[in-house]
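Appendix B, example 12.
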Amino acid sequence: MSHFKIVGFAGSTSRPSRTRGLIEAIIGATALHAAVEAEVFDLSDLLPGLAASLDPSRPDPAVARLIAAITNADALVVGSPVYKGTYSGLFKHVFDLIEPKALKGKPVVLSATGGSERHALALDHGLRPLFAFFAADIIPTAVYATEGEFGDYRPAGRPLTARIDHAARELGRRLTAPPHVADEPIVQFA
């Protein structure tokens, strides 16, 4: 049985982080629906080299390793803490260094964490447009979680775990679906 490579990227500058806990939970739940191997990267491990990586052709070695992992993965699970209504700037900087066509068609689960429900729209107004730009295959269910839905940096409580499982089932189906075969055209032109 072949395993699907999932790369998680937690855009938090703190460690431990709820964002990483959420990403690990999504990947763990996906493993119940598809054979996966995973690697999770933390933004905090890329500092200060990330800030010095302004040229995509010459990134810091740790940043280059992350970019290679992201572009070679079968699927991504990404997440950022929400600051003032959107993902973190350093999270975005990572994706500024990625070739625009590198994520085309790649399944991506979007997630975010924040202090209150009022930041939940960051998924639809920030992360979804970012990955739409890359023409990624964005999984319909995104997962947002507030500070109160965690215990010891791990998702806790039925509503959050149900959202995680729903997104994981969608990603598992996407990974295990047979390749799309284009339909024959109805009209052929000479």
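The chain has one domain: 4-176. The domain at 4-176 is CATH 3.40.50.360 (Rossmann fold).
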